[in-house]
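Aim 2 progress update. The chain analyzed this quarter is reproduced below.
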Amino acid sequence: MPAQPQWRLIGALTLAAAALASSASGPGGPRLALEPCRLEHPYGLGSVPARCGRLAVAEDPGSPTGRKIDLAIAVVPAVSARAKPDPLFLIAGGPGQGARDSFVGVLGALGSVRRDRDIVLVDQRGTGGSNAMQCEFPPEAVEADADPEKLRQLALECLAKLPGDPRFYTTSAAVRDLEAVRAALGYARINLYGASYGTRVAQHYLRRYPARTRAVVLDGVVDPALALGPAMALDAEAALRAALARCATSPDCVARYPDIATEFDALRRRLASAPVRVSIPDPVSAQPRDVDFTAGHLALAARMLVYSDISASLLPLLIHEAAARDNFAPLAAQTEMLREQLEDALAYGMHNSVVCSEDLPFVDASALDRDALGRTFLGSSLLEGMSAMCEVWPRGPVDEDLKAPLRGSAVPALLLSGELDPVTPPRYAAAAAAGFTDQAQVIFKGQGHVQLGLRCAQGLIRHFLDAGTAAGLDASCADAIGPAPFFLDFSGSAP
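Predicted C-alpha cells:
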C-alpha cells in the first residue's frame, strides 16, 4: 500500500535539554546503550533531540548465529520525571517506510502522550537505518501504466544490488525484532501505534506477545486476514468519485467546476489515446523541461491526491485546468512531486519482500472481477505490476497464522479510519475490530488515509492510553471533523 501519510501537522518538537537525561527504559533497566542524538526531518523542516542506539539481530531468524544486521532505534524520552513504565512504539507504513523519518515531523502531535511516556521509533528491518533494502527505481516504475515486463526486469536488477537476503524482511521477522528491542530497552509492557501497513505489524506483535502488549492504536487499519491488492483500484475509484461528488454538492465548487466528473472522464479518454507534451520546471535546477504526460500520470496523481482531504481539495482545480483550459502544467508538476515523494519514502526492496510473501500469494486470481477493475481509473495495472515483480522476487518465511483473524484478544484497541480512505477503508477496521473484546472504532467524516494529524485523534490516543481501555472513550470530537474546502483558484481554498 502506498506510503507517505499526509499529516496536517508538520514541524519539529522543541524539547527541554534536561529531558535527554530521563530514563529510556522500564523498571528492569536497559540492556542497550543509548547516546544523545537528533532526529532530522527528511525535508529539513527541523530536528528532534532523542537518544539513539543500534541493536544487532540475526538476519535469518532461524539462524541466530548467522549474519547480523543492525536495527536503528531512537527513544524520545518522556518529559515527566515520573514517567509511566509503558512507552508508545510507533510503527510506520508502506511497507517500506522507516519509523524515524516517517514520524519525526509529527512528534509534536504526540506531545501530550510524551509528557508521561517515552516514544520509541524502530526502523523496521530493511528500512531507514536498519539495513535499508533500497533500490533506485526510475520514475516511470511507479506510474499506473508501467510495463509489467519492464517491472520484472527492474525487480531482477534490484535483487542484484540489495545488501541482504530479501527473504528475511517480512512482518514475521519484524515482530521478533520489536520484541528484541523491547527486551533490550527493559520495558515490561509496551503500547503500539501502527499506521497503515504498520497496523498489520502491530496486530501480529500482539498476537505473538500478548503479555507484553498493553494497548494498540491502529490508524488506517489493515485486517489481518486481508490480502492487499485486489480491491485497491476499486477503493481508490470510490474515494475519487466521492471527492468529485462532494464538489458537485458544494455551492462554490460546483459553480466553479459545474461538471467536474465529466471533465475527469474526458481527460482520461484523451490521455489514453495520446500523451500530452508539457513543459514544467525541473525541481532541482528550476530550468524548464518537457515531459509526456500520460494516462498513467493522471492515474498516479488521482490515486495519491485522494489520500488526504487537503490534497483532494486541489483535484477539481487541477482537472479543470487540464480538461477545460488545456493547462496541464499544474497537474504534471504535482505528479512529478508525488513520484519523488514515493521514491524518497519507500525502501522498495523491503516493500517487495512483504508484498510478494504476504499479499500476492493469497490473491485468488480466478475470483477477481476484471470487468469491475477495468472500469476504474487504475484498472488492473497495480495488480499486474505487483504480480510481475513477484514472479522473480523470492518469498520469505511467513508465520502460519499471519493471515488468521484475531479472536477474543483482551488487549485494548483503538481503531481510527477515514471515511474516504482510498486504501484501507473503514470496513477493514470493522473486520479487524471483531478480534478484540475491548475496542472502539472511530470514523472521521470526509477524511482520507491515517488520522494522526487531527487534534481529535491525538486527544483520543492520549485518553485511550491513559485509561488503558476503550470503554467509555468519548469520541464526540470526531463529529466536528469535516473535509477541507476546495481550491477555487491557485491562491488557496474557498473560505
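The longest helix spans residues 232-249. Confidence is low (pLDDT under 50) at residues 2-29. These observations will guide the mutagenesis experiments scheduled for the next reporting period.
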